[in-house]
Automatic annotation (TrEMBL):
InterPro entries according to UniProt: DUF6442
Protein origin, superkingdom: Bacteria
TM region(s), chain numbering: 30-48, 54-71, 83-102
Protein name: Uncharacterized protein
Pfam family of the protein (one): DUF6442
Keywords recorded for this protein, A-Z: Membrane, Transmembrane, Transmembrane helix
Length: 109
């Protein structure tokens, strides 16, 4: 096989994307995740200082996102470490969800 045949086979195996595209997509998702976490932390700090409260909904969303990411990694890789991290984020997501619902109902500030 020549180089073009190998590249074509690799793209077919990867859904029409090459390795560089997959790597760029992975890096983009990683940086988006990190920036999202930093943004939520900043929003929580500012809301805590200005409004004297924290929006539990933002934290819930981030924990759910992390839970789904690690659960997916566990399903794909089958590593117990990924399952443990997913469960920790899942519990955190459940706690933030309850707090968010209580905040929406006016039970807590």
């Amino acid at each position: 096989m020549n180089r073009e045949d190998v590249l074509k086979m690799a793209q077919e195996e990867n859904g029409g994307r090459d390795v560089a595209d997959l790597d760029a997509q992975k890096r983009g998702a990683y940086f988006a995740y990190l920036i999202g976490i930093c943004l939520i932390i900043c929003v929580d700090i500012v809301e805590g200082i200005v409004l004297h409260r924290i929006s539990y909904g933002c934290n819930m969303a981030m924990f759910v996102m992390a839970f789904v990411a690690f659960w997916t990694k566990y399903r794909v890789l089958g590593k117990k470490h990924e399952l443990l991290v997913a469960l920790i984020y899942g519990v955190g997501a459940a706690v933030w969800t309850v707090l968010w619902i209580l905040q929406l109902c006016g039970v807590i500030a």
